[in-house]
Amino acid sequence: MDRLSSSARVMIVSDLDHTMVDHHDSENLSLLRFNALWEAYYRHDSLLVFSTGRSPTLYKELRKEKPMLTPDITIMSVGTEITYDTSMVPDEGWVEVLNQKWDRNIVMEETSKFSELKLQAETEQRPHKVSFYVQKDKAQEVMKTLSDKLVKRGLDVKIIYSGGMDLDILPQGAGKGQALAYLHKKFKTEGKLPPNTLVCGDSGNDAELFTIPEVHGVMVSNAQEELLHWHAENAKNNPKVIHATERCASGIIQAIGHFNLGPSISPRDVMDSSDSVPENFEPGHDIVRFFLFLERWRRAEMAYSELYLAGLKALSFPSSAFVHPSGIEQSILDCTNALRRSYGDEQGKQYRVWVDQVTTTEIGSNIWLLKFNKWEISGDERRGCIATVLLSSKDLSPSEGFTWVHMHQTWVDGAGAKDHTDWVC
Ligand code: GLC
Ligand code: MG
């Protein structure tokens, strides 16, 4: 799919902290499960939207800390900033909407009269968002009084309490829900409203997401009291909203299955790769499957067997060439030798592999061009390469997967390996 130019099959709109990202999961396993599912079965025809309370500065920090995918649309600062694509192009139309009945200076002036309000970091103060910390037991009263005062000053604002500590003041037309409604309207006008949207959240600022007509919703198992309370009061009888029994990204996967939105078994949950052959021929799935094999092989999570290497050899042409990011061209024989040497070399280490932004184009009959970023973490070091792969499905049945004709990798700027030799492929 040419990103954003045609109608998506599914649109997932997810909060980040404690929803997509589990800060209590040091190995990030639920996030990596989601990543593999998304890149294998959804990336090519669906839309991933992150909707976070974080400012662009803190959002970028989180991306460096956690193995996160790149979304198609990023909504930041509690629905006050919408950007598109990797280059994060801002939506100027949304800024216009937010300027109505909004005056930051008046908000600053009135809030300064409350000693209970403690201003958050400078990075979190944005053109259409003013944020404070306030104690749980003071929150309700402060919100009421402040709201009356701001109305008297002629403003129409929205005050949101999240995570039992954060208080955000935004224009009335802002918020995560309004930002999603704005996107839906825009897609509808362009005739490409996705047939299914799943919203995912854990805290107060996510509540609005669940009010958008037609959406499916999941509150992850670890959702905050304030969201559960909101749900009990406002959405208890809506069968389209569930409270998952699983935490964070695993709760999102659970909801995909519950609402039948598409495949819901992550390739990471399938140990024997031969069981996981999809019914439809999905080149993205082959890429995910191969790099999962690499991770398990190097972590020695699978038994050593020459059969695997022979199998890989059978899935490429004798003339296939693989260009390592160091620039050296390798034959399939060189690659299988490198793989043989690397068995178990990451055993007992925090070594993980994931792919991001797999794009697929059928460039000829049975020939596929794939582009993606491949990332590895080993301990504290993170490395990444941009990869281009040619796959062929000529004379093969779906159960046999694809033949790898060619692969070319180059380091992502600033994320190359110090030592080229421990990047196997
Ligand atoms: C994020 C933001 C913070 C905001 C909170 C709740 O943590 O950094 O400014 O108050 O989300 O929306
Ligand atoms: Mg959250």
From TrEMBL:
GO BP annotations listed: sucrose biosynthetic process
Broad class of enzyme this protein falls into: hydrolase
Record SUPFAM superfamilies: HAD-like, NTF2-like
Reactions the enzyme catalyzes: sucrose 6(F)-phosphate + H2O = sucrose + phosphate
Classification via InterPro entries: HAD-like_sf (IPR036412), HAD-SF_hydro_IIB (IPR006379), HAD_sf (IPR023214), NTF2-like_dom_sf (IPR032710), SPP-like_dom (IPR006380), SPP_C (IPR013679), Sucrose_Phosphatase (IPR051518), Sucrose_phosphatase_pln/cyn (IPR012847)
Record carries keyword Hydrolase: yes
Keywords attached to this entry: Hydrolase, Magnesium
Pathway info: Glycan biosynthesis; sucrose biosynthesis; sucrose from D-fructose 6-phosphate and UDP-alpha-D-glucose: step 2/2
One Pfam family matching this protein: S6PP
Keyword flag Cell inner membrane: no
Protein name per its UniProtKB record: Sucrose-phosphatase
Organism: Actinidia chinensis (Kiwi)
